[in-house]
Design goal:
Layout (H helix, E strand, L loop, with lengths): L14 H20 L13 H8 L10 H12 L21 H13 L10 H17 L7 E5 L2 H16 L7 E6 L5 H8 L7 E4 L9 H13 L3 E8 L11 H11 L2 E6 L23 E4 L1 H4 L7 E5 L2 H8 L16 H4 L9 H11 L1 H23 L4 E5 L5 E6 L7 H18 L6 E4 L2 E7 L7 H20 L2
Parallel strand pairs: 2-3, 2-4, 4-5, 5-6
Antiparallel strand pairs: 1-7, 6-7, 8-9, 9-11, 10-11
Length: 479
């Protein structure tokens, strides 16, 4: 396919050329997705350093044929990575990648409409506003709530902290203190620093035996800071921690935050979307009371990585932080959602289309069914492992994540248990059908299973449990 042109300043392609390129790319993508059921759960990462060194190159002076670029991408490079889109990926918190979202990203990038302000693309921005309203409804937030899409949970946290800081501290930032649990995602401390809340003003609160924030310890920390002349202003609950899937006592923390005048943020990046399933809402009791909420549609809605979201109960507080004007911009208006008035970006992509097209094509009912299934699969796996010799379940699934470790008379010390549990994760992953990861929680290393890929079904979880049993028996027999 010759893409050369006689005019070096002409960067466009003919309709025929674009069709050929599009069909070639689509053929590769469809073949890649069709092969996922038998693809390795984790690609070969043994020579990653050498691979990356070999890929360093100077800027090309002249263009290349698309096929010569697609060949190594799909034959080699994409495969040398975690198999995040495969059904056996039960590590970390799985991402998604439903196909309608890929179509939406292609449309958004090709049409390339400006969506920073409503007036530039009214219909397109309204579609994005619709999706934020759908999220608001699923989370039972009030009509006053507003939100924005972000690249992920980290930027959602940053905007939430900045909004709370602006409303409750104003310019007197240094006196403000913020509260997280020892199991809180690490991005919050980073986001706090970016928002002007230094590390010495972030308080880490102890957790209970189920890895949930202790409300009594939180109350004591708040009282101590007030006595020291500081100003407690924000507390974070987690709706599903990364390490163990623990759900903090959100309702009780909301009560304390209300009494103390603190902004209460719920990190629902992993678990928030389970709230869209009515029968699962009791697991997340108190979530609708949050002042702000992080959601990751690239987790619970199975969308591509790079799709995060923030909802703020008091939409005007979010707007007060971000609203601005300039002589070259239209006057601010109040009736329609204006992305630039609720977030930091003026020039931005169009993330709302991937959310809109996925929901429109799949429908809320199928989303609810998929989420309910993932929790049932995690519960089944936990029950099966709990009756397997050598396994101790440290955290039963509150949502769809469970944590465990190996224990037996042959593993006489904590170090031996940790080493065996770590080896178990590696042994199962090395088989190539299931990828698992663990987490260091205090002195204990825990194995984890997180069921959240939309492609993970009962047969895949059965394979996971069977391989865990086989590899654990072999490890314990060797001690």
């Amino acid at each position: 396919m010759n893409l050369s042109t006689h005019d070096p300043a002409d960067l466009d392609f003919s309709p025929a050329q674009m069709r050929v390129m599009g069909e070639a790319t689509l053929a590769r993508i469809v073949a890649h997705l069709a092969a996922l059921p038998t693809a390795p759960s984790c690609g070969d990462l043994s020579d990653s350093e050498a691979l990356c060194r070999s890929l360093r190159e100077p800027v090309p002076e002249h263009g290349s044929d698309l096929q010569t670029l697609l060949d190594p991408l799909f034959a080699d490079w994409i495969g040398r990575s975690f198999g995040t889109t495969g059904p056996g990926y039960m590590a970390y918190i799985p991402g998604g990648g439903v196909f309608p979202a890929a179509l939406a990203s292609f449309i958004a990038d090709a049409a390339n409409r400006y969506t920073g302000i409503w007036q530039a693309a009214p219909a397109l921005v309204q579609l994005e506003a619709n999706t934020l309203d759908w999220l608001r409804g699923w989370m039972q937030f009030p009509d006053s709530a507003r939100g924005l899409y972000t690249p992920g949970g980290s930027m959602a946290m940053f905007n939430a902290i900045a909004t709370a800081r602006e409303k409750l501290l104003g310019t007197d930032i240094r006196v403000g203190t913020l509260y997280v649990s020892s199991q809180t995602h690490h991005c919050i401390a980073k986001a706090a620093k970016l928002a002007g809340i230094a590390h010495d003003r972030v308080r880490v609160i102890a957790v209970d035996a189920h890895y949930r924030m202790r409300v009594d310890a939180l109350a004591a920390a708040i009282a101590a800071d007030r006595a020291a002349g500081l100003r407690p202003f924000m507390v974070f609950s987690t709706a599903g921690t990364t390490n163990t899937g623990a759900v903090d006592p959100i309702d009780a923390i909301a009560d304390l935050a209300a009494r103390e005048g603190l902004w209460h943020h719920v990190d629902g990046a992993y678990g928030g979307f389970f709230h869209m399933v009515p029968e699962l809402r009791p697991l997340l009791a108190g979530l609708p009371r949050a002042d702000s909420l992080t959601l990751d549609p690239h987790k619970g809605m199975f969308l591509p990585y790079g799709t995060g979201a923030l909802l703020v109960r008091d939409g005007q507080a979010l707007r007060a932080l971000h609203s601005s004007s300039a002589g070259y911009l239209p006057d601010n208006q109040d009736e329609f959602y204006d992305p630039a008035q609720y977030g930091p970006d003026l020039s931005r992509g169009y993330p709302g289309l991937r959310v809109w097209l996925a929901i429109k094509m799949i429908g809320a009912a199928r989303y609810r069914a998929a989420l309910a299934e993932k929790r049932e699969l995690a519960l089944w796996a936990a029950q099966e492992l709990a009756r397997t010799p050598g396994f101790v379940i440290d955290a039963m699934p509150q949502l769809s994540l469970l944590a465990f470790h190996l224990e037996s008379p042959a593993l006489a010390t904590l170090d031996a248990q940790n080493a065996a549990t770590r080896a178990l994760m590696q042994a199962v992953t090395a088989r190539g059908q299931v990828m698992l990861t663990g987490a260091q929680v205090g002195e204990q290393f825990l194995g984890r299973i997180c069921v959240l890929s939309f492609r993970t079904r009962r047969a895949h979880v059965e394979t996971c449990v069977q391989q865990l049993r086989e590899e654990a028996a072999a490890l314990l027999a060797g001690h």
